[in-house]
Amino acid sequence: MTRKKTLSVIGKPLRKVDAMAKCAGETVYADDLNLPRTIYAKLLRSPHPHARILGINAARALKLDGVFAVLTGEDLPQKFGIMPSTEDEEALAVDKVRYAGDPVAAVAAASETLAEKALGYIDVEYEVLKPILSIEEALASTEESQRIHTWNRRANVQKAVSLEFGDVEGGFAGSDHIFEGTYFYQGNTHLPMEQYCAVGFYGPDDKLTLWSSTQTPHYLHRALAKVLKLPASRIRVIATPVGGGFGGKSDPFSHEICVAKLSMITRRPVKITLSREETFYVHRGRHPVKMWAKTGVKSDGTIQAMQYKTFLDGGGYSSYGLASVYYTGALQTVTYKVPAYKFEGVRVFTNKPACGPKRGHGTPQPRFAEEIQMDEIAENLDIDPLELRLKQLVEANSVTINGLQISSCGLRECIEKVAERAEWKKKFRKLPFGHGIGFAASAYITGAGLPIYWNNMPHSGVQIKLDRSGGVTIFCGSSDIGQGSDSILVYAIAEEFGIDPADIRVVSADTDLTPVDLGSYSSRGTIMTGNATIQACGKLKPLLLEAASEALEVPADDLEFADGQVRSASLPSRGISFAECVVKAEGKHGTLGATGSYWPPKNPREFKGSGVGPTPAYTFSTAIVELHCDSETGEIKIDKVWIAHDCGKAFNPLLVEGQTEGSVYMALGEALMEEQIFRKNGLHKIPSILEYKSPTTLETPEIETILVETIDPEGPYGAKEAGQGPLLPVVPAVSNAVFDAIGVRIHEIPITPDKILRALEGRLKAVSIPQFEFPAPLKWQPGEGVKVEQKS
Amino acid sequence: MKKSKKNGADDRLTKRLLRLQVNGETKEVATEVSKTLLEVLREDLGLTGTKHGCELGECGTCAVLVDGEPVLSCLMLGIEAENTEIVTVEGMTQNGKPHPLQKAFADLGAAQCGYCIPGILLTAKALLDEKPYPTRDEIRQALAGNLCRCTGYTKILQAVELAAKEIP
Ligand code: FES
Ligand code: FES
Asked: Is the peptide bond before A750 cis (omega within 30 degrees of 0)?
């Protein structure tokens, strides 16, 4: 096959395909849908964090004029959840509520106001139970009577894991210095600007359509079939353009199932839009994690062994928790050479909104610990923190001690470039008191190596249709959450066929029309849909080339797709337009279309829990943060952030920069102010945008992005992820910069003025670590099978 | 649970005929006096380009221009907007031509999910109408009430600067 040497679309700062619609206010988000005869739903939520439901009576609500239906738990008893082995959610609580905000009933009424009013006419009798609100309380409540769930083995422990790679004991014994520390990463929430919204319509043809602001229409499709007990073939899920996801719209949710069921009863379109307050209850955000980290080094700073314990506060349900707990241990080895590594992690249930995947999913927390500890090692051994890292970076085409295969790696260049731009050498430990600079590095995955439910089908599929007009339509299940996944499909086709992106249409995220793509999570979009698209184009090219070759009397291997033409590469004036070529090829071969699929490389490891960590390609990021810290008030002002990100190949540099800048911004929010916190009685303390502080234009500093291109062999055109990885180094870099500025170490986020002041006065206590007996470790070496059957 | 057979009807709410000037057109609509301008625009006039993120005046997503000033449409009643000139994002495109701000936002990739963008575009328009060459700090100040969770504001600030250069 002819392969162009130079790229004409990939790598160019093009507009996104939906850019003008978004800027013109024409994009139709879920709440902008107004179907004829729509009625409106509202959910009644538990006021108690932990209670048994003794009875629900909706009779009074049903009597109200304009109320069409009321649902309670017994109408939808089937449990569901994103991970097949921990399905512990109910659309409406059946006999127990597990957090304040847990839905117990749903109403459909003629108007939103009326539905809201009807909620007050539903009588629920609760037996209030003592809430469990912290990791410590969860681990101490081992009595059967104190259980939040009954399915898990150990009371209030959702999952406990223990993994050991290499000779950890020997590594520590052979170390000249041992560093230990404890850390706390507070939980925070996605706060997408668009609140959750869904519209369900069960039509006269006995088919259900659900429109929802979701990142994972395929998983939602499966959950709806299961809970509603409908054949999946009669359910259509359409993901509307998502007004901000960040991981928060990746689970199947109560409100989605309820509008579907309410429409099945009323046979009218049913719409629900959650309030901002409810959005805080749906949550699935960053887990609060307590961590203990230990690193043994030689006197030159080279790492001999590393050990981590992580304690995740999971909230009331499992959600992605099984993956989250493994992710708090999976990627610590993917930055520096670590010859021996042990990880123990536990996720507990508490009576708070469930935590889940937020940008970085489980990895920003241990990265925070790791990068502060590296800074402390450097400080202690009197080595420049960058030098300490540079002498022991992981390398391209290597395997980590826990069996993760690194293909491309631009970490060294990321460190060097960021240091140069920030003038690190001139500033580090040289700025006046109150003014500081800090560094950190990190790694992240480009798509999970395994799907969420076991199957051997492709992770991503596309279908391409060629039209006689020369127009191309691509159908793909991926959902655009603002990252530009629709545009990625278009750029790849435009590149392959040498045509104008304007001649390409995208139909995405519609389970009736589009082949399955697993969804917009784990930074999988570009690598998986991009490769599937290239494959589909590759199937069509021989047909097009054959027709063009005949028409032009030019051998096929001298033909190229360029400038809207299929033409002779050696004599470019000899060509036909792409449209003409399609007409000729269709006349010759019949209707033109093709599918493309993508499977990630086979999991290189084989032990329980090994599915978390492998990926087609790792990205690397480094950050330098410069800040001012006022020792009188404790206030921090970030002056500037330099971020270098190894993105493989920048598919579209504008979009990659945008993802990087957004990651830095979100990291600063987490580092300095954002927290999902609760009162002693278990109620959310700040469920509003006013109280839940997040950075505005005034707190967000200048961000300088440096893209490092490594051209990964597995990536489409070499591309890797950009949406999550760049968040990781920023948070520890802030803490390291605070140390440079005022000489105190802060091991907790958010780093608020009061923590700064307490630290300066020597009153900031070390983070306490709970007592817990982890299961015996599963020991594994690269290339080995399962040695110990793990119990939790 | 059983389905109710009742004919849906709200509690009797006071309705009134509103006459609004929106995007240069006169619109008449009979609607509840208690409705916010946001609701009137989205629900009664079908102008769904205006978004909402809180309906409590906390996020800036619902900003529209009322007599040239950015106003949070979730905090203003529809009836209060009578006898004013209202501009929504749909009104920024004139005779099929996008406003330079819209063009600059599209060109620089300043709209990611795009949900905050209508409010930001209008707030930025008010700034540029009053101050054609704002400094970056002035842009930051003007947009301080408009939250965006996607972009880190970087490309938004750059796009406003770019548009300022292109407005004749
Ligand atoms: S909707 Fe948030 S300020 Fe109006
Ligand atoms: S672009 Fe998504 S909130 Fe601003």
From this structure: yes
